[in-house]
Design goal:
The complex is a heterodimer.
Chain A: E1 5-7, E2 10-13, E3 19-24, E4 31-38, E5 42-50, E6 53-57, E7 64-68, E8 74-78, E9 87-94, E10 104-105, E11 109-113
Parallel strand pairs in A: 2-11
Antiparallel strand pairs in A: 1-3, 3-8, 4-5, 4-9, 5-6, 7-8, 9-10, 9-11
Chain B: E1 3-5, E2 10-14, E3 19-21, E4 24-26, E5 32-39, E6 46-52, E7 60-61, E8 64-69, E9 74-79, E10 88-96, E11 104-105, E12 109-114
Parallel strand pairs in B: 2-12
Antiparallel strand pairs in B: 1-4, 3-9, 5-6, 5-10, 7-8, 8-9, 10-11, 10-12
The chains are: A mainly beta, B mainly beta.
Chain lengths: 114, 115
């Protein structure tokens, strides 16, 4: 069974550009979570999608947005990139119907903003 | 708001020895879950162990065990018989009760294992 896959592995952009990051969840998982791991800041929650709907949002500006497609894959879009957006972006997926609802992570997309 | 604190930015252990990583959290909720994740240099976060707050018994997974002190809001991870492959960043995480929800992470502890 394939795990959570993220693409691209690395992404280099310049200030002001837009970045699109993609995530494919484990088969059968309906929830997708996005986290930002910036140097010195740990992992911070960005967005949570379930069954195509945004369920919760972390303390990030509206420049960070996303969506979940009917096949449960997800995109994270970052508009008007700033230098401090440079980070590892991790996607996690989970089943919607289990009691504990373990989140399984992908290997991340390293975004560098120059 | 819930917070998770890991007070040890770095720890070191000799191979085959035991090490304990600390984690404290703050919440006003009674129903929640706690997790330890491991992040090796490959960047992939791997679940090490989980604990349901309503369970008094401490969780164990092979060489990994936790000391869950609900009243003290403490959730430490003990690694026994440390192996070179245990070297990684370890993150403590909290999730509120219910079937789903985002994780709140501590800042992590970097564990080195000396041969």
């Amino acid at each position: 069974e394939a795990g959570v896959t993220q693409s691209p592995t690395h992404l280099i952009k310049t200030r002001g550009q837009q970045a699109t990051l993609r995530c494919s969840p484990i088969s059968g998982h309906t929830s997708v979570y996005w986290y930002q791991q910036a140097l010195g800041l740990g992992l911070q929650f960005l967005l949570w999608y379930d069954e195509g709907e945004e369920r919760n949002r972390g303390n990030f500006p509206p420049r960070f947005s996303g969506r979940q497609f009917p096949n449960y894959s997800s995109e994270l879009n970052v508009n008007a990139l700033e230098l401090e957006d440079s980070a590892l972006y991790l996607c996690a997926s989970s089943k919607g119907d289990s009691l504990i609802n373990i989140q399984y992570f992908g290997a991340g997309t390293r975004l560098s903003v120059l | 708001a819930q917070t998770v604190t890991q007070s040890q930015p770095e720890m070191s252990v000799q191979e085959a020895e035991t090490v304990t990583l600390s984690c404290t959290y703050d919440t006003s909720e009674s129903d929640y879950y706690l997790f330890w994740y491991k992040q090796p240099p490959s960047r992939q976060m791997i679940l090490v162990i989980r604990q349901e707050a309503y369970k008094q018994q401490n969780a164990t997974e092979n060489r990994f065990s936790v000391n869950f002190q609900k009243a003290a809001k403490s959730f430490s991870l003990k690694i026994s018989d440390s192996q070179l492959g245990d070297a990684a960043m370890y993150f403590c995480a909290y999730r509120r009760g219910g079937s789903q929800g985002n994780l709140i992470f501590g800042k992590g502890t970097k564990l080195s294992v000396k041969p």
